[in-house]
Amino acid sequence: MNAWLIGGALYLIAVTSVAGYGGIPDVADADSFRDQPVVDGFCALESAQECAVQLDVRWRQTSSTKALERLPIASLGDIKAAMESLGLHTLGVELTSGNILYVQRNISSGVRAIGWLPPGTATNDSDLEIGHFAVLNDVRYNGEIAFVDAASANVYLRNLKDDPRIPILLISSTSLEISSTAMSLDVIRLMLGSVWLIGAFGVVLACLWIDATDFSRLRKGGLCLSLGGAFVITFFISRVKVAEVKKTSPVPVGSDALIFAQHKYDFGQLIKENHKPQLASLLNTSEQAIVLKGIRASCGCITATPQHTTIPAHGKVDIDISFSTFLDGPNKYDLQAFGSDGQNAECVIVFEGNSSLNVSPTKHFFGSLSYASDLNNLQRLQVELVHFHDKQISGVAIGKIEVEQPFDVSILNVSGDHGEIVLLEFRLNSKAHFRGFVFQQVPLVVDLGEDESTTSISAGADFVE
């Protein structure tokens, strides 16, 4: 009898060790998110295309995908419509600690997901009530969620303790249904892997063995109570220690635990045509490893990608910094790095740009193009030359393009008060054959009278047979 009573108590303890991870997910139709401005965000198209690639589904032109391509700011409802138009299944879920097992199981089985990150996570303007979409990469049992920016490859870590409800859209090539049976199996699997449950069964077996001996009843009860008491004390001590560590561990906010190797990085003169990513180093001066939560620049023209997301104690990580703008003259930007426990570091980046010229848009996607039906069709694109300081543009020409490129490009017309409006004509290159998503850099050589400057536009398509 002692064994069963103690066993029941220990079983309850084991259950509490995994409590809070097996609830039914809070499902919300992604269309309902459409009316909530807080879940509007950037990078919806890039995230959707990345998920389609990971699910081995060709991105093709439908009314919903075309609508998403035209939206610089979209909602989960827009993403849902686009993915379902490709024949995929979607399910809107608010990720919480109560359904983390459900989401983790789906991600492990190949389901993809797009999450919404709040304003200020991936953009510098936290006052702008527009968030950011990223692809969910990993779900950990401790509540840490890793997202990857499909456009820049930056990694953002969120914690359900800080963001108790994260809107996500699950995307799968098969039906997504919530099964209470599957949820129960998730809880059972987690419980079977719990050291406390294994320990509880060990104590119960020991008590059963003691009960079968010839010891006196008083001695049996004392031994069983001693084993059970030791287990209970160990359990609560471990819980108290964890709580104390979480409560008293220093959070070096504003300290020098996370610092850049230099307060100011002067990269000198950067030549646009020969630009390579620059390096900055981030140092960890503490006794514990620091996990990077994100890196934010004061301008969206900067992409900062850490080579690793965990910085070991007294270690460092290099950060690749690339630029999409090279305005003539001095360029100065701020860069901030954030640790998952509140650490932060700042530095200043300066360089001399040598190109006074940019083009808008800098990138264009023509959609799906077929060599069978579109080989002789012309694609036209109008671009505008900007940042030429109101100089008169004397002429525009196409720079050198390698033979084996997706497009043959020519200039159809130049107009505007300063000759800044350029109409380009694209034709599929009959000497080359590409499959899938391919982009081509098209250099534009611009004569500004006294000097010549070069800018470029990236044009691409999804090439099919």
3D structure, described in words:
The chain has about 475 residues and is of the alpha+beta class. Helix 3 packs parallel to helix 5 (about 75-85) and helix 8 runs antiparallel to helix 9 (about 215-250). The protein folds into four domains: about 1-15 and about 195-250, no CATH class; about 25-180, Cathepsin B, Chain A (Alpha-Beta Complex), CATH 3.90.70.10; about 260-355, Immunoglobulin-like (Sandwich), CATH 2.60.40.10; about 360-465, Immunoglobulins (Immunoglobulin-like, Sandwich). The protein has nine helices and 25 strands. Strands 1, 2, 3, 4, 5, 6, 7 and 8 form an eight-stranded mixed beta sheet that branches. Strand 5 (about 130-140) and strand 6 form a beta hairpin. It starts with a helix and ends with a strand.
Count of DSSP strands: 25
* Shape assignment: elongated
Structural class: alpha+beta
Proportion in helices: 25-40%
Give the amount of beta strand, in percent: 35-45%
The rounded Rg comes to 29 Å
Please state the second-level CATH architecture of the largest domain: Alpha-Beta Complex
Q: Note the gap between the termini.
A: 75 Å
Topology of this protein?
Elements lengths: L1 H15 L9 E2 L2 H4 L7 E2 L1 H11 L8 H7 L6 H10 L3 E7 L4 H9 L3 E6 L13 E9 L4 E5 L6 E5 L6 E7 L7 H13 L2 H17 L5 H32 L9 E3 L3 E7 L7 E7 L5 E8 L4 E5 L3 E2 L4 E8 L5 E11 L4 E10 L4 E3 L2 E8 L7 E9 L8 E4 L8 E9 L5 E8 L7 E12 L4 E13 L1
Parallel strand pairs: 2-5, 10-17, 19-25
Antiparallel strand pairs: 1-3, 3-8, 4-5, 4-8, 5-6, 6-7, 9-11, 11-15, 12-14, 12-16, 13-15, 16-17, 18-20, 20-23, 21-24, 22-23, 24-25
